[in-house]
Design a protein that fits this description.
Length: 236
């Protein structure tokens, strides 16, 4: 495998990515979803993934997070100052990249009963070995900015509304300060006030050099944050 030279501020470089699914229940029909997708994202950039439903945006995001094995191509990620190809990593190496380098804000929070919101959101920081006091302070600051009522902080998010869960999810990812952040409709369940807060928080991360890649159905969020779009379903 030759060494790859990307510009020093390229944090993510996707090269000719292919991914198809075999539908075993339907006579092993071969369904190509991604056919030769390429993308480079630099520090401080935000790229919106656009295209109709089923065009491959979510599949692409799952490939970037290492949830899906790809058929062909490379996903180069700058991880602890080395370029690693996610497609070649062992599962424990993918976990290390998720712990330190790539954050993911999914639309749905997998809340665990009896674990309070503060702990759910602080978990990634605590796993990195950040002192509990520092971790909980960071989480509380974000909860405050996101207007999550203090009476909820010590309750399990299982009972929360969609918008409250989404804010716990956002906090969980933003507290760590990942260099690369994947966002799956991060404001879908939020009211106007909290949508504005999320836009501000993400703009701050961008200014600090974070690379953002996401699906943003919200036109305003897209226009305020995104530098460019990668469109799916048009011959790729």
């Amino acid at each position: 495998m030759g060494t790859h030279h990307h510009p020093p501020n390229t944090l993510l470089h996707v090269e000719n990515l292919h991914k198809s699914f075999t539908l075993h229940q339907q006579g092993n029909i071969h369904l190509p979803v991604l056919q030769g997708v390429s993308l480079s994202v630099n520090a401080g950039e935000c790229v919106a993934l656009s295209g109709t439903s089923g065009s491959g945006k979510s599949t692409f995001m799952r490939c970037l997070y290492g949830n899906y094995r790809t058929d062909r191509g490379a996903i180069w990620v700058k991880h602890e100052n080395n370029l690693v190809d996610l497609c070649q990593l062992a599962p424990h190496e993918i976990l290390a990249v998720r712990q330190k380098t790539i954050g993911y804000v999914s639309q749905f929070l997998r809340a665990i009963p009896r674990v309070p919101a503060l702990e759910v959101a602080a978990e990634p920081l605590l796993e990195l070995g950040v002192a509990a006091e520092i971790a909980f302070n960071r989480v509380e600051d974000l909860f405050q900015r996101l207007n999550l009522p203090e009476r909820l902080w010590h309750l399990s998010p299982t009972t929360f509304s969609g918008g409250e869960k989404q804010r716990v999810n956002i906090t969980r990812a933003l507290a760590v300060n990942y260099p690369i952040l994947l966002l799956d409709e991060p404001t879908s369940a939020l009211d106007a006030v909290n949508r504005q807060v999320v836009i501000e928080l993400l703009a701050e991360l961008k200014a600090q050099g974070c690379a953002l890649i996401g699906i943003f159905h919200d036109e305003e969020v897209r226009s305020l944050l995104c530098n460019r779009e990668l469109t799916f379903g048009q011959d790729n």
